[in-house]
Design brief:
7 helices
Length: 229
């Protein structure tokens, strides 16, 4: 298993994102990490032309946070109940946002979709409720991997505080993903830990990802450090 650098797009200004992505796409085993709420909801649109020109570049995005405009669209589509919601793990929304991300990025196949900061829903004493939310969200992504083979290679969790604060652990996430797939204890291939360093300090975002059956050509990419502005 090898290590390589990828591009994190969290703090890249709108006017610099496309150029940064083009530079990253020239790297061996190029990898870009983004989210639909980055850059005021425009990150996917800035990245789509770059990805079209570099079809071998890996792309990971997320689902969880909503901008005001996305929340309005999601509410109109009937996938969230409150147009003022700014974070959701509702399975309806996870499915809708994953399809929307494919369309916005211009990729029929996404290399990874992360549940974005699911600890947002953690409250004292509601560990079982959060586990249920995670399991239900994983079930949607598992369906994307299994029923629509080739449309999603892998799924996981991207978190700032989830591991550090003990909200969840890698064994717990492994178990919930296996339960969501309907086969507890099933081996889904190697787990990947993605560490993202923010340019404003040394704080690391930790990402857990479990490879699905569509990721046969992806698992050799190994551990990855993404540097984002």
């Amino acid at each position: 298993m090898t290590a390589s650098l990828g591009l994190g797009t969290y703090r890249i200004p709108a006017g610099e994102m496309a150029a940064a992505a083009r530079r990253a796409a020239l790297s061996p085993s190029a990898w870009i990490d983004t989210a639909p709420n980055y850059c005021d909801g425009r990150a996917h649109h800035f990245l789509a032309p770059v990805l079209a020109g570099h079809p071998d570049t890996g792309i990971a995005t997320k689902t969880g946070f909503l901008t005001a405009s996305t929340a309005a669209e999601a509410h109109a589509a009937g996938v969230v109940d409150d147009p003022g919601v700014r974070h959701s793990l509702d399975p309806r929304y996870v499915r809708w946002q994953t399809d929307r991300s494919r369309s916005e990025l211009g990729r029929l196949r996404l290399d990874a979709v992360f549940l974005h900061n699911p600890e947002h829903h953690q409250q004292p004493g509601n560990g079982a409720e959060l586990a249920d939310r995670l399991r239900a969200a994983f079930a949607v992504l598992e369906e994307e991997e299994e029923a629509h083979a080739g449309r999603l290679a892998s799924c996981g969790v991207a978190t700032w505080e989830g591991f550090a604060d003990g909200v969840f652990t890698v064994p717990l996430l492994d178990r919930l993903a296996a339960e969501a797939a309907g086969v507890p204890g099933r081996e889904r291939g190697p787990a990947l830990v993605e560490l993202t360093r923010a340019a404003t300090g040394t704080r690391l975002r930790a990402c857990w990802i479990r490879f699905g059956p569509a990721a046969a050509g992806f698992t050799g990419r190994g551990h990855r450090l993404g540097y984002g502005r």
